[in-house]
UniProtKB/TrEMBL annotation:
Species classification: Eukaryota, Metazoa, Spiralia, Gnathifera, Rotifera
EC number: 2.7.4.9
Name the record gives this protein: Thymidylate kinase
Record bears the keyword Transferase: yes
Keywords: ATP-binding, Kinase, Nucleotide biosynthesis, Nucleotide-binding, Transferase
Transmembrane segments: none
Domain of life: Eukaryota
Amino acid sequence: MAVKRGGLIIFEGLDRIGKTTQSKLLYDHLTLECGLLCERLSFPDRSTQIGSLIDSYLQRKIDFNDHTIHLLFSANRWESIDLMRTKLLQGYTLIVDRYAYSGVAFTQAKGLDIKWCQSCDVGLLKPDLVLYFHRNKQSNCLSFTGDERYETKSFQEKVEFYFEQLRSSSSEQWKDVNVIDKHNVEMRDKESIQNEIRLYVKNCLDGIKSNHIDELWK
Ligand code: NYM
């Protein structure tokens, strides 16, 4: 019997909002409890030569202008595309921390044009599901600060604005994951977020009926 392809599931959102924790929990659930073939990836993939340039940039060891670093982030996705397609067709579900949406939102926050930002990623594999981690803006219980570039409150707020724009104009299947509790006071507990995600993922995987993979933004 032909293998059914796996799903391409993207975790998106601001820095330090809980994507990595949740993607690991999902990976454990899909592999250990559901017995599915599954792999986790993240962008930037700092293990490649391009990824190592990006890593040095993020750690402020080297500089690039805004267009150049955007192209490097995009190239870092393109260098994975063949492996990702092969894995999906072998039946692996790919759980991916960040994708082209981060590319666009972070670079737009520096003032570059959306059309140019998107153009570099046109034709990448189109996700089956984008889990968009967000918070209610009134909530104050998230800290975005860290040592890498971009990890300041003011910059993250700009990025958030552009993420919201992308979210409202995208044709891909996006699901909002609000990480703040309904009283707007504290983070929701990990289990309740994970349970919500599992439902979205189950529906997504059940809905994949053909092995065809669309192209992003085409
Ligand atoms: N980032 C990530 C971009 O600016 N453009 C991109 O295309 C991608 C994939 O890199 N602050 C930014 C977002 C993060 C930083 O990501 C490092 P992470 O997930 O912390 O390794």
